[in-house]
Amino acid sequence: MPLAGTFGRKPDTSLVQPDEAATSKAQVSCVPDGHFYSPIPSHDEVRRNEERIFRIPERLPAIDLNVNEQLLTLTSLAEYCDEIPFQPGKTKGLRYFLQNPMFGFADGICLYGLIRHLKPKRIIEVGAGYSSCVMLDTNERFFANKISCTFIEPNPASFLSLLEPADSNRIQLLQTPLQDVDPGTFLNLAANDILFIDSTHVSKAGSDVNYLVFEVLPKLQSGVYIHFHDIFYPFEYPKQWICDLGISWNEAYLLRAFLQYNPSFRIALFINYLERFHSDRLRELMPQSLGGAGGSLWLRIV
Question: Which CATH homologous superfamily contains domain 61-301?
């Protein structure tokens, strides 16, 4: 539908002052939340259609959930569970603890297990925090700090508050928006290395999500593992987030479209899917992971 048909003829703003022009433009081009041109959904419509929106099928069209490989990967990670150093609460000598507000239990344990299993030479993380603490603790305890860790975080105050004094000499911290980072930074990632993404979760003009999906992912080498956070099965956000908290992220929808008919990126682990459809296996192999719902999606480049 053309915009003119919706909003009427655009007023002539050429003779008004800049502030007035900006106001006029805003009045013409902006739409309220829930309007069909707005990326922010109508909460009433979401509630009215919640049975369709939030249904949870075991399979998705055009996406290979790679269930057998997920379960094999889970079995491999279980080999390291007896050596998990993390406790629910803060423990002396460790940065990470399981019962944190951002990256707990299943997510943290699977990240720990994957680092142990893959033995990466390099990890690059977009968005730093408690997940970074898993990386640093695992690197320190099991790899003698030999894994190169780079963190891209334009607002690092919270992240820095979690670190030990000596960490500044062990990591590379890029305090800049991801979009300003040279794409070549990611080309050194090789097989079994990790690109860990905890982005703004929003696809829009100039966003970090667009930069990652359009500029970074297509250039990565075969065998690199990629993590996206806050991705829930079936690539939908919780109703409470949308209707009660007003969260209107759209990264999960972009990823679902990206993975359709895409044999180059395989699902290695989809934590929330496993929690929903293979909880018995998860409980058997990783009982420590059951303290809270996970939101990690792990991909492997073929």
Answer: Vaccinia Virus protein VP39 (3.40.50.150)
